[in-house]
Write a structure and sequence with these properties.
- The complex is a heterodimer of chains A (378) and B (127).
- Chain A is an alpha+beta fold.
- Chain A has 10 helices and 20 strands.
- In chain A, helix 2 crosses helix 8 and helix 5 crosses helix 7.
- Chain A is globular.
- Chain B has a 6-stranded antiparallel β-sheet with strand order 1-2-3-9-8-5. In chain B, strands 4-6-7 form a 3-stranded antiparallel β-sheet.
- In chain B, strand 2 and strand 3 form a beta hairpin.
- Classes of the chains: A alpha+beta (378), B alpha+beta (127).
């Protein structure tokens, strides 16, 4: 597989990043200490290169109706400037990807415009799936992933850092920007799409920018963030942060073999929308039958009683019998105990249930707990 | 590049063994292993008085990212463990050849060990 480099590869090398392959991309795993990076995001701010994520523009008179058909959510219901988390599913309800869609201002009368952001490893599949599903709709689907960089500033100091770079007359755009909303701002003369979204459980921003403008923006953010405790953070910290926040990762918790209801994402599916959508029939049947009778398993949070952590693919047991499998797990840096996500048989999925996880031959107790593990103080 | 200390001997499983001065030998994990593991948050060591066997697992080292078995590089009785690293496993990352040592063994036999030069050449470490 060819390994792609983001437009910020030289910045990462200069900062002595350790790299890892992720979805076909060489991405920073960590710079110095993934724990320090994790704590920086919880207590100050962290800077992430997420340019491996996809960016697909959907534009046309039928853009909203098309996304209502292609995705499980009702995208036509969100107003310009807002964003929505959704899924693209197969006809059998299996999850092709989870994605965020941003509704952007209408470029002309009667035309709607959305930015759809899939995961790195799924970007091409999602783009081609969308293009296929566009048949019969008056809409253009354009994959801009190769030309677009994505930089995230996450943490309680993120807003203060942005305000140092955005011109004064645009400050209100930043301070008044709501969670899951986006707005165009200017930094150093470059036009950017600034979104208040993230994958860390903290306040923060994701900034979509042309590749050619990404290195200067990265440097400017690092400089502006210096007095605010901002440090660059890699995928290791991103993974521990999202796990504490109880957010699923495609490939771990989500796949074509699980559906929205088993994954705890039932509210993302709009069976109430009038239009047909890919997966409607299968998902309607699954919901009607109940999670327990058709899927058998459900995604839950597990909290370790000891210090040893559960890891992906470890077996979950009840009275010695196999009842499930861990999908993600590690010691939680913020909480100080092991946390994990696991699919377990529905009858053992109630919070408070004590189960065992087979930690390399030794069964250790874990408790089923409500998600998220970590919630920030507002 | 991760540091390799010249005066120590190394196992293929990335444990180091201090030179045998007649008494028990000190054992820890190399900087190569500590760097690869990432930030270590939990360490499980053999008990004092137990017998460890060269090439056999005798504990584990867990980081935020992964977990790795600890293999004893020598055979013998464990005479002392480093309680400080049990309380503060970050010592292993910060000072793997010093304050981050793991346990001491009255060694009766050594497993196959490499010189620092051999270990550095095999693992991309820096002497």
């Amino acid at each position: 597989m060819t390994e792609n480099h983001t437009a910020l590869y030289e910045q990462h090398k200069k900062a002595s990043a350790s790299f890892t392959d992720f979805g076909g991309w060489q991405m920073p795993l960590k710079y110095e200490s993934e724990l320090a990076e994790h704590h920086a995001v919880r207590n100050a701010a962290g800077l992430f290169d997420l340019s491996h994520m996809g960016e697909i523009w959907v534009t046309g008179p039928d853009a909203a109706a098309f996304l209502d058909y292609a995705l499980v959510g009702k995208l036509s219901a969100i107003t310009v400037g807002k964003a929505k988390y959704s899924l693209i599913c197969n006809a059998d309800g299996g999850i092709i990807d989870d994605l965020i869609s941003y509704r952007r201002p209408s470029p002309e009368e009667g035309v709607d415009k959305f930015l759809v952001v899939p995961n790195a490893g799924n970007a091409k599949v999602v783009a081609s799936e969308l293009m296929e599903r566009a048949t019969g709709f008056d809409v253009a689907v354009e994959d801009a992933s190769a030309e677009t960089s994505l930089i995230a500033v996450q943490g309680p100091n993120a807003e203060a850092i942005l305000l140092k770079l955005v011109p004064a007359e645009q400050h209100a755009l930043v301070t008044e920007l709501k969670y899951y909303a986006a707005v165009e701002v200017t930094i150093d003369g470059d036009e950017l799409l600034l979104a208040r979204t993230g994958y860390t459980g903290e306040d923060g921003f994701e900034i979509y920018v042309a590749n050619s403008d990404a290195p200067s923006l990265w440097e400017a953010l690092l400089e502006a963030g210096e007095d605010h405790g901002l440090i660059p953070a890699g995928l290791a910290a991103r993974d521990s942060l999202r796990l504490e926040a109880g957010m699923p990762l495609y490939g771990n918790e989500l796949s074509r073999h699980v559906n929205a209801y088993g994954a705890g994402l039932g509210p993302v599916v709009s069976l109430a929308k009038e239009s047909d959508f890919v997966g409607r029939e299968a998902l309607t049947a699954i919901k009607a039958a109940g999670v327990g009778s058709t899927i058998g398993q459900k995604l839950v949070g597990l909290k370790g009683a000891g210090r040893r952590a559960a890891r992906g693919h470890y077996s979950v047991l009840k009275d010695g019998s196999l009842i499930g499998e861990v999908t993600s797990g590690q010691p939680s840096p913020s909480l100080g105990y092991p946390v994990a996500l696991a699919y377990v048989d529905v009858e053992h999925s109630e919070p408070g249930t004590v189960v065992d996880v087979d930690l390399r031959g030794k069964a250790e107790p874990f408790e089923v707990v409500a998600l998220p593990f970590y919630k920030r103080q507002k | 590049m991760s540091k390799v200390v010249a005066e120590l001997k190394y196992s293929a499983e990335h444990e180091w063994v201090s030179a045998d001065g007649g008494g028990p030998v000190g054992i820890g994990i190399s900087a190569v292993a500590a760097d690869a593991l990432g930030d270590i948050v939990y360490v499980d060591l053999p008990e004092v008085g137990s017998t460890v066997t060269a090439g056999q697992t005798c504990g584990e080292v867990e980081s935020t990212k992964s977990v790795s078995d600890l293999y004893s590089p020598v055979t013998g009785e464990v005479t002392e463990i480093n309680d400080a690293v049990v309380g503060d496993p970050a010592l292993i990352n910060n000072d793997p050849y010093g304050a981050g040592w793991l346990f001491k063994v009255a060694a009766t036999e050594e497993g196959p060990l490499m010189s620092a030069e051999e270990y550095a050449a095999a693992n991309g470490g820096e002497l």
